[in-house]
């Protein structure tokens, strides 16, 4: 098979695998693993795990470590030091110790199934300590749990695991040395690592900043990208030359750049290389699986998977509980981190390359890791049910949370529920306070909630995507719901709850852009406000004003652009305080709900529109809350709410015709 044919097979398999797993709402990394298993030499044998492919896949690990290095800046570690260096450190140390003890017991009790040296056991204990950052972070982001109590602890543990990879990358190659040279090899590897890291980190940051500044002055994207690849691969080669690993040098390169002002540009530029090559690495991992060995030794595979899941679940739960978390938070943290991780594959591959583990042992371990990762989305999906079933106090904890929200919202009606109390939510709250309009905000950041509550703001800790929290915040009595966080899945959950339980309450959604505009409107959003459009309008208005366009014309141009985007901003809803400035000729808005017996019921918009000569129908909202675009074929029903646009006299005439004919 030619190189081109092999490349095409890899690309086709990767595309199909990612499409299938994305459609199932599963992380693409699992798709790459499954693809590797299917096309590998031990299944369909469409591709061989050749030396060239393995070398290319190693670059995936290099860029993975580089991306991890970019994430490690001192302020972030300092802010999370309790979870990172407390809970994370204890998790890695105790997992390794318990794994060593378990491996020794298995060797004594089941020598036919399990027989390994202490060097191999130590290497495997490092593999066991890892969990999957890629899978867990994606699933938590989808569930809006990154800022939750268990989410912060999960992130702290994952961060320390990523840090722990660095000494393990130094340790495992030394463990592959002959027994009589082991101590010397360990000492030499440690000395090399300390000397190299000290050299790079002490003077490297200043040198890196100067070099990147010099390159950036040429204002060439190609040159900047070439320089980035040179730095990453050059430092990886330097650490390999020193007898360490490629991945360690890439990690150092990422750390050096993380302390410069070029960090965010580098993250953007390196992302395509990182994702593609890392996908190739996971395909090669899948190709390593020999299912004949797995099938022959399925009891061992099952035992390894179940024992690893239970060990990490129990250990992490107990450690989290011991450090002050509630039992519900501790159990959730344990459930989220039971699986194997991508760095576990990196360390396992390195262990195999050093001759510390044979294929007969490698495949059962690899299979148990893959299966644990495949099980992770389902474990996290049902984690709340498991916690409620196993922790009696969790019902009480959630009830108290809902009671706290309800207590704050119980005296309010006609209020606005603000989902998310970040900068956007707080600005909205200030404007509502200025107009004497009550509001109730829900947020998942306990520190923000505590500070805002102390300042007298009406905000409570709660997940707006959960129906119970919305009901406790007074959804049935609210005048509007505003979703301020930039998360489409979360917004869709809120919209589904509002449409089902309070269909007449309008919902305004904030988004990054307008790609999901139709999807959100179909889900029941009254209006969608894309940040990119509003930003471009403000940019244009400042530019026009600075080049001499009269301010009145600037305002009119911006308003015309908004009219083209937002139905509800075409004109305005008239109020008592508008009479002094209203000349009667300005276009305004009016909402009209059709009662039982209205003349227009049962008629189509196409038949009615000619009779509403100077009035436009901007939107139609059904009794169940579903928003529809005006269409000539739509038939009006009891409870429909129409938003009409026109001058005062035309609106009065249109109302008369719609209600009484």
Topology summary:
Layout: H1 3-23, H2 28-39, H3 51-71, H4 74-79, H5 81-109, H6 118-129, H7 133-142, H8 149-175, H9 182-216, H10 221-241, H11 246-258, H12 263-288, H13 291-296, H14 298-322, H15 327-336, H16 342-353, H17 359-381, H18 383-390, H19 392-409, E1 416-419, H20 423-434, E2 439-443, H21 446-454, E3 459-461, H22 467-472, E4 480-483, H23 488-501, E5 507-511, H24 517-522, E6 527-530, H25 531-546, H26 551-565, E7 588-593, H27 605-608, E8 616-621, E9 627-628, E10 641-646, H28 648-660
Parallel strand pairs: 1-2, 1-4, 2-3, 4-5, 5-6
Antiparallel strand pairs: 7-10, 8-9, 8-10
Explain this structure:
There is one protein chain. With 661 residues, the protein is an alpha/beta fold. The protein has helices at 3-23, 28-39, 51-71, 74-79, 81-109, 118-129, 133-142, 149-175, 182-216, 221-241, 246-258, 263-288, 291-296, 298-322, 327-336, 342-353, 359-381, 383-390, 392-409, 423-434, 446-454, 467-472, 488-501, 517-522, 531-546, 551-565, 605-608, 648-660, and strands spanning 416-419, 439-443, 459-461, 480-483, 507-511, 527-530, 588-593, 616-621, 627-628, 641-646. It has 4 domains: 3-389, Up-down Bundle (Na+/H+ antiporter like fold), CATH 1.20.1530.20; 396-525, Rossmann fold (3-Layer(aba) Sandwich), CATH 3.40.50.720; 537-569; 585-661, 2-Layer Sandwich (Alpha-Beta Plaits). It is built from 28 helices and 10 strands. The strands form 2 sheets. A 6-stranded parallel sheet has the order 3-2-1-4-5-6, sandwiched between helices. A 4-stranded antiparallel sheet has the order 7-10-8-9. α3 packs antiparallel against α12 and α14 packs across α17 (359-381). The protein is elongated, with a radius of gyration of 30 Å.
